[in-house]
Amino acid sequence: MDRFQLGIEIALSVLLLVTIFYSLYLGRALSVLRRDRGQLDALIASLQSSSAQAQSGIDHLRQTTELVGRALGKTVESGKSLKRDLAMLCERSETLAQQLESLLPAGRVATAGMKASPRVEERPEEAPFRSALRLKPDEVRTMKASGSKSAAERELLRALRQKQG
User: Fold this and answer.
1) Would you state the torsion angle of the CA atoms of residues 15, 17, 18, 21, taken in this order, to the nearest 10 degrees?
2) Which CA distances in Å does 76 have to 61, 63, 87, 90?
3) Among positive and negative, which fits the CA dihedral 60, 65, 66, 70?
4) Residue 42 covered by a domain
């Protein structure tokens, strides 16, 4: 049995060497997995912190949006109020312009009569309009709107120029 024992021992030795080399290979593979697991844990921690920052950014953006929305709402409401006021002023100015246009021929007659008759007391707010009625058509055309005149006065002068020209 010596030969048989020797054969079994050689076979076991070979199997033992194969097992040693295989265990070394598995040890290296496990160390690579452990190292990669550390990187994976670091990646997960980084992802969690990025997620927390994104959530806080979203909350901040939501608060900012609400503030801007409120401010925009106030601006829109004041714009609507201004629009109503401007519409009312436009209607009133159109009514006044129509009244002035209807008085224009009468104003010319009154102006001609004023030169011959004694002076009638003028109201200060009518002075710019009376002076515009006394102008000759050429003077009205060349008259420039100064910075001190309101938009209504400039519009009135433009209407007078169109009516006379």
Assistant:
1) 160
2) 22, 20, 16, 20
3) positive
4) yes
Q: Is residue 117 part of a domain?
A: no
Sorted by sequence, the CB contacts under 8 Å of residue 160 that are 6+ apart come out as 104, 132, 133, 140
pTM of the model: 0.37
Q: How many domains does the chain have?
A: 1
Q: Is residue 9 part of a domain?
A: yes
Element (H, E) at 48: helix 2-116
The string of pLDDT tens digits covering residues 132-150 is 555 455 454 444 444 467 8
Q: What is the pLDDT of residue 69?
A: 93
On the CB side of 31, CA atoms within 13 Å amount to: 6
Distances (CA, A) of 123 to 101, 115, 128: 19, 17, 10
